[in-house]
Each structure stands twice: as C-alpha cells, then as structure tokens.
Amino acid sequence: MRHFEDEDLTGAQFRECDLSRARFVGAVMQDVEIDGLVTGLTVNGVEVTGYVEAELDRRHPVRVLIRSDDLGDLREAWRRLTGGWAVTVDRVRSMRAGSEHQRVDGEWSTVETLRHLVFVHDSWFRRCVLGVTEPFTAMGLASPVVPDHEGLGLDPSAGPGSPRWSPCASVRRRRSQRGSPTSHPSSSPGPHRCPTTTGGRRMPRAGACSSASSPC
Asked: Which sign does the torsion angle of CA 172, 178, 183, 189 carry?
C-alpha cells in the first residue's frame, strides 16, 4: 500500500487508476472532479453514493429503464438511447469538417467515442449475452488497459467507411445476426456463460478497467 503524507497534489490527474479502499485524512479537496465507477464513497462521515446515483437517475431517467427487468422498459430504453445518439451524430455532422476527430482535455474525440461504443456492444451484448466468440468488429476501439487489441480483431487504424456512418447502424447490423436487446421473450436467446476467449484469445476479466463501461 502506497502512503502519501504532506504531499502537494494540486492539479494532479489520476486516469484509469484503481483507488479502491483509499483514505484521505486531513486532506484539502477543493474544486475536485471524480468520474468513474464509484461505490461506497464516504465524505466526512456521510456515505454519498446514494445521493449521487439518485441525482443521475433524475437527470437521465433512461438509467432507471436500463436497470429494469421489464421488456417494455428495455425497449423504451433502447429507443431513447439510439434516438439520443442519432441527435448527437447529426449535431456533429453539422460542425466544421475535422471537429469529430478533435480531442478536448485529453478525452476521446467523438469518432473515438462512437467506435468505443461498437466495442462495448461487442463485449457486453454479443460476447456476454449471446455467447459469441468471434473476433470483435475491426473498427471497435478499446481502452489501453485491454490487452492484445489485434488478437481480438480490433484495428486501431480502422474507422467509419463513410462520413454518414453511425454507431447505431453498426450495432443494428450486429444484433440482427443473433438476437436483440429488444427481442420478444419467445425469440430471445437463452442465458449464456460469458466466454473467456474471443477469436481464440483470452479476454480480460470483467471490471478490468475503472470506467463504468468496463471491460473497455
């Protein structure tokens, strides 16, 4: 366990770090931003995770639908998610050429983010729900913590084949192969054990990265 005492970490950035069970005692934390998979966060003796989750649900009601076991709720969640991304993609298309490839504050560009959604769909739905062990979609983009990108079928240099490309269209093509997150129960595939290999390569364990979309 690393120990920091009387250190000035003003302006420090921790990216893709595991800070589980970390303790900050007598710390000065002003204008601090935390973004990631956060649970059991206690601030000055108050567990605040519930407050944060409730506020996120208020701001983004689709989160509640996603957690539902009701098929109607899941269909509505899918409709809202695809609709929201369609609006985002249309907005990006209206911006000046090249904007979709620009990064801001070290975060992924719009195109990189959309490519990551393709990877997440392959990882969580095709692999863990459908049990598919085929290589991932080449244009999918995984975070650096996922090992052996090429072995998984990913091509970092790949990209949308057309400026009209949409991640929603790519996902629809993929899910039309087998099953759908909005299928009728009678036509839905049964439960699958999440494969430990894809394309003949061992996959990282679930939760291998710190973001809420892990493994990514």
From this structure: negative
Separation between Cα atoms, residue 182 and residue 185, nearest integer Å:
9
State pLDDT tens for residues 39-73.
Answer: 999 999 999 999 999 999 999 999 999 999 999 99
DSSP states of 137-179: PTT----TTS--TGGGT--TT---SSTT--HHHHHHHHHTTS-
Domain region containing 151:
104-202
Instruction: State the total domains in the chain.
Output: 1
Residue with token string 């595939």: 189
**What CA–CA distance (Å, rounded) separates 120 from 88?**
18
pTM for this entry:
0.71
Q: Is 43 helix (H, G, I), strand (E, B) or coil?
A: strand
